[in-house]
Amino acid sequence: MTYKSFDMQKRSDGVTFEQFKKSRVEVHVPLLIVTMRLGLAVVTRWRDAFLEWRKREKLRAELHALSVRELLDIGIARGEIDYIASNRASDPRSAVFPECSRSMK
Q1: Is 85 inside a domain boundary?
Q2: Which residues make Cβ contacts (< 8 Å) with residue 83, sequence separation at least 6?
Q3: Which of 49, 70, 85, 86 meets the CB 3.0–4.6 Å disulfide criterion with 60?
Q4: Which of 79, 89, 88, 93 is nearest to 59 (CA)?
Q5: pTM of the predicted model, to two decimals?
Q6: How many domains does one find in the chain?
């Protein structure tokens, strides 16, 4: 149906062409906004994951560049580098040396 034929036809519900056009815009704008937000969320998550991967790779390269003596000084064995780079949020040494929760009296 063209816009011209819409004006010429008599609608049974009494909707004018301007009301029809406005209702279509009101429906499509929220859908467009939702689609854009979802697309932005996907791109943001991908970017954050990529930046996190780059940080892990940089840490892994820096630790591999250290000598065995330097690694031992900071309490890391060469075999633990991949684990430490992948799990930066958790410190495996905290399981061995937990912080003392008791106060010294």
Answers
A1: yes
A2: 92
A3: 85
A4: 88
A5: 0.53
A6: 1
